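# nightly structure sweep
# worker-07 picked up a monomer target from the shared queue
# config: single-sequence mode, recycle default, output format = C-alpha cells
# input follows
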Amino acid sequence: MTKTVRLGRTDLYVNPIGLGTNAVGGKSIHVKDDAGRSIVQTAIENGVNFLDTAFIYD
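# output follows
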C-alpha cells in the first residue's frame, strides 16, 4: 500500500486510504453480515488500517 500519514495530532499513523463501514452490518439492510465481514477482512488483508465505523454524521 502507500506511505502512511499521521492521523491528526495523534501519534497514530494510518494508510491514507481507509474504509467507511457505515453500511456494513448492524442496522444496514444493504450489506448482509457475511458480505460485511468479507469486505472488512479483504480491506485489512490489503493493508487498510483505518476503518471509519461512524453510524451517522451530523
